[in-house]
Amino acid sequence: MRTRPDRCPGVLRPWVADDGLLVRLRLVGGRLPAASLARLLEVSAEFADGSVYLTKRANLQLRGLADHGGELAPDAVSALESTGLVPSRSHELVRNILVSPQTGSAGGRADLRPVAAQLDALVCADPRLAALPGRFLFVLDDGRGDLLDRSTDAGLVALSDTAAQLRIGEGWGAVIPIAESAARLAELAVAFQQARGARPDAPWHIRELAGPPPSVAAGAAPDPRMPAPSGPLPFGSVPGGTHVRVPDGVLTPDRGQALMEHAELVVTPWHGVFIPQAQEAKP
Fold first, then answer.
1. Phi, psi of 35 (to 5 degrees)
2. I want to staple 21 with a disulfide (CB 3.0 to 4.6 A). Which of 35, 65, 115, 142 is the partner?
3. Under DSSP, is residue 198 helix (H, G, I), strand (E, B) or coil?
4. For residue 227, how many other CB atoms are within 10 A of its CB?
5. In three state form, how does the secondary structure of 80-134 look?
């Protein structure tokens, strides 16, 4: 049973670690413009330990920042915002959207990049969702099965290029049009937030509720079109691009510099960076 709110770190709520403050920057579907990475490495060199750390949710962390009473100095906050990776101060802790890294590049049944972008916009625009637990996670599998083994709070699996089945905690929801999926996922998050309440011991995850939120239809069976789990994306040349391994998830300045020739990168939840094929060749 939970006895306190979650303590997931963010820019405005860092984690106090032995080596200084730790902050987390949340990437929607792991998407990372190379210009933002370049700026983040500069920020890390000035304010942190010089490296960028990849997480299992395809997000980024900095370590070793100066501790000012459990907070970052204002100039460090401004520097982090200059990367373009902190689009909302009020909602920075709740932008947890994990997406199949290759979606839109190769394979899968649907390109879920627009869904992820719309979902992020809806979450950030709703004041009620600023209070979601920092551990609440959306997982969007584009039908290839690479994220089926991931626990989620609200998510979907594409069944075709127009239809998807909702994931609700550890269960399944309705089959819906992909065009409606971002709105449905945002509604599910609102329903959870209302059901969990505001007590310090309120649940962090949908699976911790006594039952699904009253406004959520759960308990469906998996659709017959559901893919089998495909496992992690292998490293090396893969359909649609290259998956670069980042040892121990530590993107040092040298490793980061090697990626700078590519316009856009996708951080993966397996301590790697996917480089879409269209970005592989130098100009």
1. -65, -35
2. 65
3. coil
4. 17
5. HHCCCCCCCCCCHHHCCEEECCCCCCCCCCCCCHHHHHHHHHHHHHCHHHHHCCC
Query: Are 113 and 104 spatial neighbours (Cβ–Cβ below 8 Å)?
Result: yes
CB burial class (10 A; 0-12, 13-18, 19+) of residue 152?
A: buried
Q: Which residue is listed with tokens 């405005």?
A: 12
- Map out the domains of the chain with their CATH numbers: 97-220 (3.30.413.10)
pLDDT at res. 198: 85
User: Is-contact 58 29, C-beta < 8 A?
Assistant: yes
Express each pLDDT in 180-235 by its tens digit: 999 999 999 999 999 998 888 899 999 888 766 655 656 789 999 999 999 999 99
Instruction: Please give the distance of CA 193 from its chain centroid, rounded to a whole number.
Output: 19
How many residues are there in the chain? 283
Taking 50 as the pLDDT cut, the residues of the chain under it are 280-283
The pLDDT assigned to 89 comes to 95
